[in-house]
Amino acid sequence: MAALRFGFTATTIHVSSTSILTRTRPIPKTITCVGWDPEGIFGPPQTGHIARKEFKRRLERDAEAREAFESQVREEKERRQLLRASRVVPNNVTGLIEYFLDTEAQDIEFEIARLRPRLTEEFFSSIKLELGELRFAVNKTEAMEDRVIELEALQKALEEGIEAYDKMQGELVKAREGLTKILTSKDVKATLLDMVERNELNRSLLALLDENIANAQSGNQKDAAAFMEKVRGAVLKYMTAA
Hints:
By secondary structure, the chain is mainly α. It has helices spanning 17-21, 49-86, 93-101, 108-115, 121-135, 142-183, 188-197, 203-218, 222-241.
């Protein structure tokens, strides 16, 4: 076995005679490096304890706020449903005008959808007739002027709402026809390409697919739901590409 040999080179170290000998006070023992852990016994230093606790508290507060908000939304929804159920729709045009005037803005769309068959030319003629009488009245009062503003606002809201509702219903009818065409097609891809050319793929069709997928899933029709999900993906792809 080879012997290990160490060679030392003589080095002269000059130390001032007063640097050591003149010290009379003991050197205090001070910890200068609290992170010294060459063997890794204590592992990497852990920091951010306060930040983690604050983040945890914030999450808890956010969860409580979210729960309170969702509870408030549920309560508001239930309140509106009870209010809608408690309202009695009048049988005559004059009463129907007052009914809509008393309807909250958030419920106008709902009432238009529910009472669309009764929003006829006769209904709007009654509003226009009353507006004409109020505008040309000889002695106008503040109440009459307020009534004119209310009727004008109602007329505009109903006309815009009816236009949007009729358009949506028309798109829904076309969407039903398109979905029937797709589901009964022997070549779905070719049918979708043909519908792209005819501009028949739209959001209404996607909404109808979503509704049918949800119904299939709730009815445990897994194969039908899976097939319609594939169709939906293809429809969305062609809509994006178009």
